[in-house]
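[audit] Reproducing an earlier prediction to check determinism. Same input, same settings, fresh worker. If the tokens differ from the archived copy the diff job will pick it up downstream; this log only records the rerun itself.
[audit] input (451 residues):
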Amino acid sequence: MSVINDTIARVKQMDRDQVEFHQAVTEVLETLKPTAERHPELVKAKIYDRLVEPERAMTFRVPWMDDKGNVHVNRGFRVQFNNAIGPFKGGIRFHPSVNLSIIKFLGFEQIFKNALTTLPMGGGKGGADFDPKGKSDAEIMRFCQAFMRELFRHIGPDTDVPAGDIGVGGREIGYMYGYYKKIQNTHTGVLTGKGLEYGGSLIRPEATGYGAVYFAAEMLATRSLDFKNKVVAVSGSGNVAQYAIEKATQMGAKVISACDSNATIIDEKGISQDKCRYIMDLKNNRRGRISEYSDEYSCTCYEGENVWEVLKKQGIKVDIALPCATQNELGKEEAESLVKNGCICVTEGANMPSTPDAVKIFQDNKLLYGPGKAANAGGVATSGLEMSQNSLKMSWTREEVDQRLLIIMKSIHKSCLDAAETYGKKGDYVTGANTAGFMKVARAMLAYGIV
């Protein structure tokens, strides 16, 4: 469809250096060609061109002082992409790799992910090229406060509600929320991922990992399969990976892997619940390296390689793959290795962790493939539930939130399958996720007129 191709070309021409954003736009819009053919009113209203332009994109300096009195300057970002169905919503990422391209790719993906949750949330994303690793609590606090000194101008409970992401956990959310509350003189639900003591929700830390496993379970059920006795590979060792390991293990699987930026561990005996708790303490409290796990439990550690590289090189067979680390971590060769060794399901806990070539291999070989915007939507869905609880000024029990999360993930799965079938791509979760999320947002944009 020429209108789609024209939009993709325009993005690449105008934002020439933003390769991650190009990738996200291309992957989504290519699957939306049937919508342009079936809905000429969307073409006439330039919905596709409007969709790829954020409402606004802010960059700002973040000066802060370390414990030795040295001044540092980092760059902060907030991209408010689309608020057609609700306030901008999306995480804040602190990592040296953060740039405008990455923040725009994440914010663009967030539009569709949030639309799929059934909750009223638009798409946005933010962050800074700050590396929290090796920093003291006092340095983290000073940076978070400096970051919030600018961000507070752009956010609010009915405007933009950030959450955490890579490098931003409960500690960082606490520091940012505390400073926001101080300078705004108000106690409101402007951030999610808050501590339970000051407006957070039960299950929020677990939600992305749990949700990815719930989504995988729904996909497996379409082939009369489940997690019992399946061998599972998980990448990452942060929040998402930890709870994906926990939930998959609870469902009867044997999870054999985890990794960080330095190394991968392969535990052929399986990462039990006790071992999972060790990883949580190691990464969340002691902020250690995953290689320490191999010393504790006498398993194999591979320095300088991620999980998918190790599986390929060692020829290790897994039934289910859960990439939960970062974008483009799983490439073509690693995908071919997974297929060759009998993998039946790939479910993305991270944002865009599989390269386009890898995705094509999964689809060509009829693997169950759950794209991140659907499979990892549990995190933002539970953030939405936290917003609801804040608005109601009440708290739900752990069981209530977990049940709502499960219902949402089942609903997302059904929406994906229904949309895929409607637009002639039965069983294609990528087309289904993109189309279902897009049509909800597009209809709202049409209703508003040209704004």
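[audit] rerun output stored. Observation attached for the diff report: The longest strand covers residues 71-82.
[audit] end
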